[in-house]
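User: Sequence in, structure out. Go.
Assistant: Echoing your sequence, followed by the structure tokens.
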Amino acid sequence: MKYHQIDRQLFIKNRAKFTAQMKPNSLAIFNSNDIYPVSADSTLPFAQHRDILYLSGVDQEESILLLFPDAPYENQREMLFLKETSEHIAIWEGEKLTKDRAFEVSGIKTVHWLQDFEKILFEMMTHCDTIYINTNEHYRATVETETREARFIKWWKEKYPAHAVAKSNPILQRIRSVKEAEELDLIQNACNITEKGFRRLLSFVKPNVMEYEIEAELIHEFTRNRSKGFAYTPIIASGNSANVLHYIENNQQCKAGDLILLDVAAEYANYSSDLTRTIPVSGRFNDRQKAVYNAVLRVKNEATKMLVPGALWKEYQMEVGKIMTSELLGLGLIDKADVQNENPDWPAYKKYFMHGTSHHMGLDTHDYGKLTEPMKVNMVFTVEPGIYIPSEGFGIRLEDNVVVQETGEPFNLMRNIPIEVEEIESLMNS
């Protein structure tokens, strides 16, 4: 791993939050992700399952976490199972966690090798009534690949059909959505790395640069600051490509007079940041571009103020829609007749702003969190309105990451990343 070791107290607190909500005499199991094959002997880079990472800090494949708070003996209440390391593995694959090192990372004292898992699980199953399985129930999830977690669930149900089953996900959706102070620091660090990358671009972008060259500048800056790289697939969309919401080809030349929509951000220690900025290829916005840009910025600023404890996402989105409607009227993109005759299920503003304004953010870019439940202090949200005008050849989106506060406006984790027209132009022309 490139990142500095995280204080294990974070994972100790996270486990305590989870086990406090478990049913009596129950145990929960969490599996690491697989290393996914590409072809021949090639594999994708390993990315840890966020739930086992959140609860243990273990950032390694072939790992299992077992939590059994009502186990008969204290040394059975938290257990890690790891692939046994050896001198051969160290030579060919690099350092893996030893039992002592696993305790340093996680705060879990009882660490076994993976080959002992089934034997120890059998003993635990004779004592417990319920098992918590970890299914993916994120509202955006579409999973076609059978995961290590899914294989375990299939095996467990066949071997232990008489036990009751409960779901870990509803607990995790709630506790993961409210960040600890240590997590906010990690997300802030990811945002700070993103800032360095963005500032680097402002002096790099010129007419005729290729979108993939911009991508290369970013990955260089992110990696040299201890990031594994992009928190998500980068969008570097010049000209009309900005009107494709998930444009990821990044293979076009940036032409003089066009804008570039940059939805690009770094991860740090598996925590995400999520930035969008829109900049002029030639270093200056024209009058129309500036008018639309400032309209989007006003919507973002007003939307940010609404992210307060107790707010509901659906109502929040409706209020943002009203602000966007006013801005689109001012820009002449819609008229009063469009608003009067709009379909309530697809308001007039949706022609130019068709996506949501905010989502939870944290270990996942689209992080855990119940959109049907009120917002809470220390939740982290994106704020990302946009206006997309294919007929005029450009689209503008602006996005920051903010923390819901007890009182007052949310705290902007991207407060130091240039966003005002004048600052961007000044930096691009300095």
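User: And one key feature?
Assistant: The longest helix spans residues 181-202.
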